[in-house]
Design brief:
InterPro entries: DUF4197. The chain is an all-alpha fold. The chain contains 9 helices and no strands. It is 73% helix and 0% strand.
């Protein structure tokens, strides 16, 4: 009887081991991922941010009706806005605010290739740490590496867009109107510099939105590379 029981136990153990081994073979095997693969995955995530999110900024009201990136007036012009509204020129103030956002929308449309080139050329010196960092770590790295150079390229585009959408004339008239009001301090802000910085911030903000989605939502990893790389940080 004992021999029968021992035989049954042995057969059961052998069967269980065989089944367990089969399950193990069916599991995905861990393969080492190089720093180059991780860097390629991070670039792809940033590319998707440009393609899916930054492209939204180029549409009419892409900045103006997006609370994440809407360009508000600089501090020195907030008193202009308030004063104009106080004397019944709210429509003029609205037109001025909309004009600077229109310039940003137009400029991003022209400057998108600049961001694409920046992402292609960026080198991630420590890609793994960036991958395992915060939800916007790759975007912050891109910002740090490209912001100064992109400002120099973006600024003339903003200046051109101000003229193209008529924002320069709108603000010349608006500020002239304000400066003609008695007892006000005259203003002459550098709107091109201000809007350039705000537009760049808007672009980086929207890239970060897509990066976070790829990091936190499995269905946003729409390529094999994204699935492979970002699985490491799950």
């Amino acid at each position: 009887m004992k021999h029968i029981i021992l035989s049954c136990v042995l057969i059961f153990n052998l069967t269980a081991c065989a089944e367990l081994q089969q399950v193990v073979h069916q599991l995905p095997q861990n393969t080492p991922i190089s720093n180059g693969d991780i860097a390629a995955g991070l670039r792809q995530a940033l590319d998707f941010g440009i393609d899916k999110q930054v492209s939204k900024l180029t549409e009419t009201d892409g900045f103006y009706k997006n609370d994440l990136v809407k360009i508000l007036l600089p501090e020195e012009l907030q008193k202009v806005d308030k004063t104009l509204r106080d004397i019944g020129l709210g429509n003029l103030a609205d037109e001025g605010l909309k004009a600077i956002n229109r310039a940003a929308e137009d400029a991003v449309k022209e400057a998108t290739p600049i961001f694409i080139d920046a992402v292609k050329s960026i080198t991630f010196s420590d890609a793994k740490n960036i991958l395992l960092g915060n939800d916007n770590a790759a975007t912050m790295y891109l910002t740090h590496k490209t912001e100064t150079a992109l400002y120099d390229k973006f600024n003339p585009v903003i200046k051109h867009s101000f003229n193209k959408v008529g924002a320069d004339q709108i603000w010349t008239n608006l500020i002239s109107k304000y400066n003609s009001i008695p007892f006000t301090n005259k203003v002459n802000p550098d709107l091109t510099d201000y809007v350039t910085k705000e537009a760049l911030n808007g672009v980086y903000t929207m890239i970060a939105v897509e990066e976070k989605e790829i990091r936190t939502q499995l269905n946003s990893r729409t390529t094999d590379l994204l699935k492979k790389v970002f699985a490491l940080q799950d």
